[in-house]
Amino acid sequence: MKKFIIPLMLMLSGSVFSQVSVGTQGQDNNRWTFGGGIGLGFGSNSAFYLQASPRVGYRLTDDLEAGVVGSVSWQTSNYYKSTMFGVGPFANYYIARSFYVGANLQHYFINYKDKYYDYKVNDEETALYLGGGYMQRIGGNSFMQIGVMYNVLWKENSSIFSSGLVPSIGFVVGL
């Protein structure tokens, strides 16, 4: 059951990322980006899901960005309760400000409790997401991203996630 619920809630709630360039100098002098995402979901049996994914990056070149992303999610329902923390590096390469490809390595720490059977699990899992997508300029140095990532380390019978495929929609400011 947990292999179905956790990833389903992750995919359905989605994450919206925004990155903001900080500083008083011109864009060329400031290469730091900050951002994150928030997810919220509701479901049957009093299911509730809350997720946050802060991130900080640095533009190594005008088209290559690398940094660290973290994630925390909390889920509860009449039947289970779960908390998951993740952290790891990411890299994005931007192609003509219309497309992007990226990689994200996340190591997750999972705490799961089945309320019905009084069963508890503390587990860890590493995910390597590879993917890309399309970017649409929405004004100035702001873009909307639509893409898909795939966890190449995902294994059907041993992963906590029900699928390796993760769609994404996000916003980027400051590229």
Give the key terms.
175 residues, disordered N terminus, 1 helix, 11 strands, 11-stranded antiparallel β-sheet, elongated, mainly beta
Q: Summarize this, please?
A:
With 175 residues, this protein is mainly beta. It contains 1 helix and 11 strands; from the N terminus they run αβββββββββββ.
Write the layout of secondary structure elements.
Elements: H1 2-13, E1 18-21, E2 32-36, E3 38-43, E4 47-52, E5 55-59, E6 64-76, E7 80-95, E8 99-114, E9 119-139, E10 142-151, E11 165-173
Antiparallel strand pairs: 1-2, 2-5, 3-4, 4-6, 5-6, 6-7, 7-8, 8-9, 9-10, 10-11
Overall description:
With 175 residues, this protein is mainly β. The protein has 1 helix and 11 strands. Strands 1, 2, 3, 4, 5, 6, 7, 8, 9, 10 and 11 form an 11-stranded antiparallel sheet that branches. It starts with a helix and ends with a strand.
| Number of β-strand runs | 11
Sketch the topology as an H/E string, one letter per element. Answer: HEEEEEEEEEEE
What is the CA-atom radius of gyration, in angstroms? Answer: 17 Å
Counting helices, strands and paired strands, the structural category is: mainly beta
The shape, in one word, is elongated
Counted by DSSP, the helix tally is 1
Main beta-sheet strand count, sense and barrel state: 11 strands, antiparallel
Provide the low-confidence segments as ranges.
1-26
* Overall average residue pLDDT: 80
For the record, give the distance between the C-alpha atoms at the N and C termini, rounded to a whole number. Answer: 41 Å
The helix content, as a percent range, equals under 10%
- Strand-residue fraction? over 45%
